[in-house]
Amino acid sequence: MEYTYEIDDDYKIIIVTVLGNLITNEVALMGKTIRHKALIMNYNILFDFRNSRNQLSITEAYFWFADHYDKIDLGFRSIRTAHLTNENDKQFFYFMETTSFNRGIKIKMFTEIEHALEYLKPTSDPHPVVHKQHRILSDKQN
User: Fold this and answer.
1) I want to staple 68 with a disulfide (CB 3.0 to 4.6 A). Which of 28, 47, 84, 121 is the partner?
2) CA atoms within 13 A on the CB side of 81
3) CA-based nearest residue to 14, from 26, 39, 25
4) What is the pLDDT of residues 79-136, one digit of tens each?
């Protein structure tokens, strides 16, 4: 497996192009490297798997973050990520999207680059955290 990446500072996206067979240890190392960079830069990620061939199992997809990333940095889960895939591997990446969503991980699968880029466009805060607290103060004494 080979990969290259480019950084789009306008859209705050790291675009990764992957070629060849997707092998567990190689994909995990690539993901760790790119996710670490994205976390530091506060960028989103587009993994372009259209010219690769999936060799990963459904079981590996199900446990991917627990097995490869959670012990490194739980912040990896909050990085908005798009998987751009080919027709042959679409079902695998759709399964990964579903299991990731169920675990609070921001991954979506696409077959069209335009849709992936639209999903990754930065908002005013790409990783919003909302904190609200309401307090009613009363000068009545019980």
Assistant:
1) 28
2) 26
3) 39
4) 999 999 999 999 999 998 999 888 888 899 999 999 999 999 876 444 444 444 444 4
H/E run at residue 117:
helix 113-120
Length of the chain: 142
Where are the strands (E) in the chain, listed by range? 2-8, 13-22, 44-54, 81-84, 107-110
Joined tokens for residue 118: 């639209």
Does pTM top 0.85 for this prediction?
A: no
Mean confidence (pLDDT) of the chain: 85
CB 39 within 8 A of CB 90: no
Task: Quote the CA–CA distance of 90 and 68 in Å, as a whole number.
Answer: 22
